[in-house]
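Example for tutorial group B:
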């Protein structure tokens, strides 16, 4: 009978929309996932991609257009004024803070007399990563990636070694291209051993190309013998001339186990695992029904070739990790994918749009009211013989007969109620999204009773930002670890072999800070000996003072102090005492 099933998953908060579950199997509308039935797209990814499209439509004020495409005729009258975008941008601003800084623990002690080798190495890696981040425009790429994470729930970083630039390149990808192969028995926190990056390329009649799908696969697997590119666009094993297979430089074969091992620059023991890269395309006409992303036939694939001539058919990247970092907006709770910041307020956003639509209609009748006239003779159209409509303009005079009157429909009361309703829904949405009015800029600062009351009102925002940053802490530490290892694998100048240094990303304060109060507190505490100078400078740095290097700032402060007693300030004499003057 076409009854819908009850579907509960990571995107169940969108089930109230008919476009999200239009069939008895719970699959979304065809306009949201056209490749889901049939096609190469895995069925379990259809709802995720549909959720991404819905969220992107809300962000670009196209939710009404999307509703119209999926069969809701009332969508053309929907009014959208950027409420979803305001929520996303506000959340993003508080998440990132004013500044983001790459910090290697222990690097601050490199400036001490006789620093330890660990502190010197940490400072060197910290500076190298900061230089790399500046060249790769990391803050700009973070803005793009984190906005996707806040809006869609997920974002993806892709790392690759560039032999020409001699550094690691960083790219941000749309999470709709990300298809991990997840093991049902694996822990949700484990990273998948196989990841596909795939998307569909439409047909181009002008160029004579058909619709096709491109799939880039990163896969961890056992190390094999050396391979080389062939003229037919494939890779083949290389014989060693003695009846065996040639090994890559540095690899060691163990005939008793059949394993091939290599020691990576960052590891202290051999490993039998490497990462393989495959980049290929398939024409959609060559795919049979049921052939999904994981089992596309390689015999019908057109494998791509890299700029240096290497065929990307299980190319050994000589690294033991997948160079992809998947960032989630929320802490994983049994799910691999994150949740959008708009998830708790989607229905409130719909209610806001409906109220705005009704308000627009009411304002039209309030600004141009409906007028009823009685006792006036309308002018007749000589062609049609019908009365002409009366035009009401400034300065218009109507001569009414006996008993005539003019009635005006007043809708200002309804308009006021609708505007109050809009504010009520907006406040409730802000509460559910944990974005206080002061963070959205809608609160009047003069009406805040005290700083303590303001701090209490920011409590939900503090917990929101802390949970979002907690979900990202490990991912950015992983990204900087991959950057170090790729530089080591590429034998970049100045990146020595050895264990990678732990590095983390420190976000700036997410709420306004009373810098004057912090400065006064630091001066008193350091002067009284309650806090060390290092701690005081760090507090000033966190408060937003332009201090790039805490250790260098401490050295400048120490060097600027006058040690001579003649430069020390003279204390005033005690009360009641006299001081003799000398000539």
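The residue assignment follows.
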């Amino acid at each position: 009978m076409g009854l819908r099933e009850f579907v509960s998953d990571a995107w169940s908060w969108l089930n109230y929309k008919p476009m999200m579950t239009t069939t008895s199997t719970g699959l979304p509308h065809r306009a949201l996932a056209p490749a889901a039935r049939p096609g190469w797209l895995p069925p379990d990814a259809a709802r995720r991609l549909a959720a991404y499209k819905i969220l992107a439509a809300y962000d670009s004020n196209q939710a009404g257009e999307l509703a119209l495409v999926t069969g809701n005729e009332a969508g053309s009258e929907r009014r959208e004024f950027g409420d979803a975008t305001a929520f996303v941008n506000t959340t993003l601003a508080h998440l990132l803070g004013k500044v983001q800084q790459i910090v290697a623990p222990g690097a601050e002690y490199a400036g001490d007399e006789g620093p330890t080798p660990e502190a010197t190495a940490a400072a060197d890696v910290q500076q190298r990563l900061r230089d790399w981040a500046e060249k790769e425009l990391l803050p700009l790429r973070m803005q793009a990636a984190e906005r996707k994470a806040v809006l869609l729930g997920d974002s993806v970083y892709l790392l690759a070694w560039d032999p020409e630039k001699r550094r690691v390149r960083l790219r941000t990808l749309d999470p709709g291209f990300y298809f991990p192969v997840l093991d049902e028995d694996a822990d949700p926190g484990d990273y998948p051993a196989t990841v596909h990056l795939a998307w569909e390329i439409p047909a181009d009649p002008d160029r004579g190309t058909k619709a096709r799908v491109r799939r880039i696969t990163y896969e961890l697997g056992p190390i094999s013998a050396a391979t080389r590119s062939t003229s037919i666009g494939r890779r083949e094993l290389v014989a060693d001339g003695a009846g065996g297979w040639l090994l890559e430089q540095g690899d060691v074969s163990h005939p008793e186990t059949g394993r091939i091992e290599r020691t990576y620059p960052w590891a202290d023991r051999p490993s039998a695992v490497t990462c393989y890269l495959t980049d290929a395309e398939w024409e959609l006409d060559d795919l049979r029904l049921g052939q999904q992303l994981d089992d596309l036939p390689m015999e019908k694939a057109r494998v791509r070739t890299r700029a240096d001539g290497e065929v990307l058919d299980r190319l050994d990247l000589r690294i033991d990790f997948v160079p992809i970092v998947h960032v989630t907006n929320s802490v994983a709770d049994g799910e691999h994918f994150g949740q959008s910041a708009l998830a708790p307020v989607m229905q409130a956003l719909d209610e806001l749009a409906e109220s705005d639509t009704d308000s627009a209609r009411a304002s039209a009748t309030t600004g141009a009211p409906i007028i009823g006239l009685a006792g006036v003779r309308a002018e007749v159209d000589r062609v049609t013989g019908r009365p002409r409509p009366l035009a009401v303009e400034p300065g218009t005079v109507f001569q009414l007969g006996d008993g005539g009157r003019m009635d005006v429909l007043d809708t200002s009361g309804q308009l006021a109620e609708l505007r109050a309703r809009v504010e009520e829904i907006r406040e409730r949405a802000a509460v559910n999204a944990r974005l206080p009015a002061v963070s959205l800029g809608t609160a009047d600062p003069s009406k805040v009773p005290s700083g303590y009351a303001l701090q209490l009102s920011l409590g939900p925002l503090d917990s929101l930002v802390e949970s979002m940053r907690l979900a990202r802490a490990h991912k950015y530490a992983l990204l900087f670890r991959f950057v170090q290892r790729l530089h080591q694998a590429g034998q970049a100048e100045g990146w020595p072999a050895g264990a990678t240094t732990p590095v983390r990303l420190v976000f700036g304060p997410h709420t306004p800070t009373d810098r004057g109060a912090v400065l006064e507190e630091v001066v008193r505490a350091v002067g009284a000996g309650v806090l060390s100078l290092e701690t005081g400078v760090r507090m000033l740095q966190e408060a937003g003072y332009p201090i790039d290097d805490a250790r260098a700032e401490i050295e400048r402060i120490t060097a600027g102090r006058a040690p001579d007693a003649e430069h020390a300030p003279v204390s005033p004499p005690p009360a009641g005492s006299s001081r003799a003057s000398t000539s």
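Residues 153 and 340 are 4 Å apart (CA to CA). Compare this with the pattern of hydrophobic and polar residues in the output above.
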